Amino acid sequence: LRAGPSTGLRAGRRSVVRGRGGRQLASLVADGLTPIEKVLVLQEVPMFARAGADTLVAVAAVAEEIKLEEGALLYGASDRSRIYIVVSGKVVLESVDDPIGRSADAIAEAGDSIGVFETLGGIASTHRARVVDYGRALRIDRETLFDVLPEHLEMMRGVYSALLHAEERQPAP
Questions:
Q1: What are phi and psi of 109, to 5 degrees?
Q2: Residue 83, SS3?
Q3: Does residue 83 contact residue 62 with C-beta atoms inside 8 Å?
Q4: Spatial separation of the C-alpha atoms in residues 21 and 19, rounded to whole Å
Q5: Residue pLDDT, tens place only, 100-127
Q6: What is the pLDDT of residues 129-169, one digit of tens each?
Q7: Residue 143, CB half-sphere, CA atoms under 13 Å: how many?
Q8: What are phi and psi of 103, to 5 degrees?
Q9: Which of 146, 109, 114 is nearest to 127 (CA)?
């Protein structure tokens, strides 16, 4: 998690789950991701790192690759909850209390996941996500993830284990 210059970590504390293989992931996206490359991306994300091949293939099948266009709003506070895995590029999370986006609460780069807590908890985000560097991401809708989870118990364990460890690694506000 990288804090913004003025707001610290308080608002963005749970907003970004740090990934492991950012540089390697960014090299995959020249012409879009193949299904196997989606699996490779998912393996680098802590919540899917312990999942087996069948599970990763199932999640890759429901993960939609999207382009990140510089300056575009990826999501707002009123949008439905989704998990975004940044494959390349950079996304800034801004507080919805800051109407003109003067400061970043957190920054997500290649390998990082955003919207995880909101998606799993079914809660509204307190942030909007704005793309600051062109790239690509995988988007996983809550409903489709929950359709896959019951069939893959080891992924469910990995998701909650990764989230608990991510929470433990975050500095206190």
A1: -125, -175
A2: strand
A3: no
A4: 6
A5: 555 667 899 998 999 888 888 888 888 8
A6: 999 999 999 999 999 988 887 777 766 676 667 666 655 44
A7: 1
A8: -140, 155
A9: 114
